[in-house]
Structure formats: structure tokens, C-alpha cells
Design goal:
This protein has 7 helices and 14 strands. The chain is of the alpha/beta class. A hairpin with a 2-residue loop joins strand 6 and strand 7.
Amino acid sequence: MEISLIQTDVFYKDKIKNLELVAEVLANSERVGDIVVLPELFSTGYIFESPLDIQALCEDYDTGPTISALSRLAAKYGTTIVAGVAEVDKGQFFNSVAVIGGKGLIGKYRKITQTNIDKLYFSRGDTLFTFEYQGVTFGIAVCFDLWFPELIREYSKLGVEVLLHPANFGGEQSLHISKARAIENSVYVVTCNRIGCDVTADIVGEYCGKSQICAPSGELLVQFGGEAGVKTVNIAVESSARKKVIGVDLIAEMNAVNYQLALTK
């Protein structure tokens, strides 16, 4: 199983240029993995002057041009693309990740945990998402989701072996948390972060890159620096990655109340 991470800067609010960039990166890659992972909100940016700015860029996944364009790329390279794409559905807006194959949308995950920025723009998702590919069970978490161990334990109970983690973060805490979650749950954690910055009158968001793949042992199989690039890594999902964490049910019960409180703050 080969996984390609594409770490990029973002052309702010310019979906066409961001899609062209992904197409160019794939065309120039020596090989394209079975799974290609892009950052959170890769086609728009993350921080805006007004909620209306990002909400105007959100797409209906059934008709949106970004999903269609990524599906064509998935078909061309025989891959499955996992990408953060802002979504609108029945008047609600979501920080979502699309899983896209050559025949179109396979499924989607809506970010469950919210930063203060997310709360300004988006409704909160409420459902975990898994999919099977080449005999491996994948789950999706978006950026801040990884900070909540209870959420990742729920994925572990669903049999997830590889957690795909599109992100937009500036500090390195998430990199350490990624390693902890991999070890705790005996899963691969595949983090694809962006670089560059979003600038508004009130906030400057700077993103550090350093995308990485962490094995269940905690070993880093690959880690980027702070530059744009693409790396393809072969991972071998062994039987040990299929084990449930000892005591996960008890731990989940003990933390259930605190988890729900954290999500509503």
C-alpha cells in the first residue's frame, strides 16, 4: 500500500489554481500512491475576513467542480484522493474531507471538533467515517480532531488501521500528538499539513508543514520540512495494527462525559 502526501501552499480563495497545482504535482511525480492525501481546505485557505467569504466557496459535493476535477485526476492516475474541501449541504456549511475515486465521490467526513476559527464559519460534523481499500480499513480525522483521544479510540473500535489526517496547523504540538495517537491505538497516522499563511485584518495564520507518516510503533516513516513537495511511502499494515487497544471500552466510558463537554464548548 503506497500513500502519497502532497504538502502545498494554497492560492488563497482560488480553487482553479489550487486544482491546477495538484494536477501539476501529480504529473511531475515519479509515482503516485494508491492513496493521495491533500491538506485540510486545500482549495480555499482556512482563515477569512468574514464567514461569507468561505461560505461562498463551499461546494455541494454532488455538483461541485472540485470533486469532479479530483475525480478525473483519480481516474487518470488510478488512485484514491483524500482532500479537504469546504462543503455546503442544505444551507449548512462544513469543514469536510472528500474521499474520491475515479468514478466520483466515495464518501465524506465532516470535522467534529472545532477550533474557534471553525466555529465562526462551519457547523460541526457528528459522524465518523471509514472506508475499505485494498483490504485496509481507513478513517478520517481533520487537524484538531487528533487532540481528542476519545475520538480516535472510537475509530480504533471500528477497526481502523490507517488514520488519514488532513490538517492546517502552525505549531508542532500536533506532530507529537500524532505519534501518541499512533502508539495508543496501534494505527498508522498519516498527517498532511499545508505551508504558507492566511492573512486577514485580525489574524495571520502561519502553517508549518512537516507532514508525516507515523507507524503504530511511533516510528516516523517520513517527515517533510517546511517546503512544498510530494512524497510517496509504502506502508505494510500487519496484523498487530488490527488489534483493539486493551481497555479501550473502559477508558472511553470514563472519558465520555468530558469528551461531550469539550465538543460543546
